[in-house]
Design goal:
By secondary structure, the protein is α/β, with parallel strands linked by helices. Among the domains are: 48 residues; 231 residues, von Willebrand factor, type A domain (Rossmann fold). The protein contains 19 helices and ten strands. The strands form two sheets. Strands 3, 4, 5, 6, 7, 8, 9 and 10 form an eight-stranded mixed beta sheet that branches. A two-stranded antiparallel sheet has the order 1-2. Helix 1 crosses helix 3, helix 10 packs antiparallel against helix 11 and helix 15 crosses helix 16. The two termini are 117 Å apart. About 12% of the residues have low confidence.
Length: 491
């Protein structure tokens, strides 16, 4: 095995100490004996601390003159030549650095680019023979101290400047971090609109997915001034709303007339698909504008006898139709009613009056009064004047015509004193407050589950519901968050 150098011995010992390799494995790895390894380790332990002693580097330089004195003449010649070569290299480096510093930056760039990579300036061994140079004296060496110091200062400042420049360039290359935005609470937005939960009726949008339309089709809707046109507007309002329903909505159509007559489009609430909407259109369109067509086609679909549930006795008129509509469990109800109190007495069975606390005598008197109503021409002046004053006190200012005779005619018709109006109006006074109480008691849902109910009263000119019927309907509409509208504006 070749002789190991001191540096190799030191690495072998340090490797064993740092990596915690056993001495047996270390000796086997490098082919040395354990005695040699222990000797190197002891020498490192004893003499290794000398490198940390002060003046460790200066002792070697102080001994250099003694070594020179012990050298022979040949060694002295080679040492002198080596010294002169080093001094020459330093001188050339100083001259080149001074020339480069005096040139403009463009010239320095050109001078750097002209020198090829294989130029002798990059070689470690200079081609110039410095052995022919004259020995340098002490006077020559003395001026070299200041340039060397300047070079060191230049190198130190240059390295610092380059380091600062690199840091500045690095900072310019690095992107400055953006400021984090301050989190803010975004208000909720209702960007998604569920069209299946909207119902359009008379140019107004209502919230609901299950809707029931209730239409008054009594004989009285086609009697009176402008009755046919008004009835067509009522039908068009219902049809216009049905055809705009979403396919995901549900609906039903209920027709009612007289006191306790009704018919529905289906036994349950129906999906608003194409077929069911077509059935509703055909049914409403088939009602026609004549009394004969109305009586023939209004009971075309599911009659009250086939419905699952019916209101209790004592619930009549619009409350009967509304009670049937609530049994379908809708979200919305639109009820379009005419002059319900003007039902024909002869077309109503006496069983429909059950639960109203009406005596048999009043019913008989009512029918007889209907048959023998007095003509308007036979009424006394006091009766006409009383009827006129009553009507003026009931109607808001400006709603009645200016002609006194026209006001009297309207008052007589509304009171049922004329023969013409008596044929279409019952003289039996219905206790509408009692009907409303019966209606509330017949509901199978609590007050919070009552659907939103909207009343639209389509009455003849200068005709109104009785006060107790109007007040109870207004109260129910308000409690269900609906509306009651007299004489609605049809498009």
């Amino acid at each position: 095995m070749p002789e190991l150098s001191g540096e190799q011995k030191l690495r072998i010992v340090l490797e064993s100490i740092i990596r915690k390799v056993p001495k047996e494995e270390q000796c086997q790895k490098y082919g040395i004996s354990e005695e040699e390894f222990l000797g190197w380790q002891d020498q490192l332990t004893k003499n290794g601390g000398q490198i940390f002693e002060p003046g460790f580097g200066s002792k070697t330089t102080s001994r250099r003159p003694q070594v020179i004195r012990k050298m022979g003449p040949v060694a002295k010649v080679f040492l002198t030549l080596s010294l002169f070569a080093n001094i020459g290299l330093i001188t050339v480096a100083i001259v080149l650095s001074l020339n480069n510093s005096s040139q403009p930056p463009e010239a320095q760039v050109l001078s750097k680019t002209v020198v090829p990579l294989d130029s002798p300036l990059h070689s470690a061994q200079p081609d110039t023979d410095f052995s022919s140079l004259q020995p340098a004296t002490a006077e020559v060496e003395k001026p070299l101290v200041e340039p060397l110091g300047e070079i060191k200062d230049l190198l130190a400042t240059g390295s610092n400047t380059m380091g600062q420049q690199k840091n500045e360039d690095l900072e310019t290359l690095l992107a400055k971090p953006m400021e984090l935005p301050v989190p803010q609470v975004i208000p909720p937005t209702n960007t998604f609109i569920d069209v299946s939960s909207e119902v359009s009726f008379l140019d107004k949008i209502y919230e609901g997915r299950h809707v029931v339309y209730i239409l008054d089709v009594g004989d009285y809707v086609l009697k009176g001034e402008g009755a046919a046109k008004r009835f067509e507007q009522m039908k068009d309002a219902v049809l216009s709303s049905i055809v705009t329903l979403s396919p995901n909505s549900y609906f039903n159509l209920v027709l009612y007339w007289n006191l306790r007559e009704t018919s529905a489009l289906g036994k349950t609430i129906l999906k608003a698909n194409r077929d069911n909407i077509k059935y509703a259109i055909d049914w409403i369109s088939g009602l026609g504008s004549s009394l004969e067509d109305l009586k023939e086609n209004r009971n075309q679909f599911v009659p009250k006898e086939l419905l699952y549930s019916k209101p209790l006795p004592g619930v009549v008129g619009p409350w009967f139709g509304l009670g049937v509509g609530i049994t379908f469990d809708p979200d919305l109800i639109f009820i379009l009613s005419g002059n319900t109190p003007a039902f024909p007495m002869g077309a109503v069975p006496k069983s429909h009056f059950n639960g109203l606390d009406l005596s048999q005598r009043s019913l008989l008197n009512g029918s007889s009064e209907t048959q023998f109503a007095q003509p308007a021409s036979l009424l006394s002046g006091l009766t006409r004047q009383t009827a006129r004053k009553w009507l003026v006190s009931m109607e808001p200012p400006g709603s009645l015509p200016e002609n006194v005779l026209e006001i009297e005619k309207i008052a007589i018709r509304r009171l049922g004193l004329s023969e013409e109006f008596a044929q279409a109006q019952s003289s039996v006074s219905i206790p509408w407050e009692k009907v409303f109480e019966n209606f509330l008691s017949s509901l199978e849902v609590n007050s919070q589950m009552i659907p939103q109910t909207n009343f639209f009263l389509c009455m003849p000119p200068h005709i109104r519901w009785p006060n107790d019927l109007f007040n109870t309907a207004s109260e129910f509409a308000e409690s269900s968050k609906g509306v009651l509208m007299e004489d609605p504006k049809f498009p």
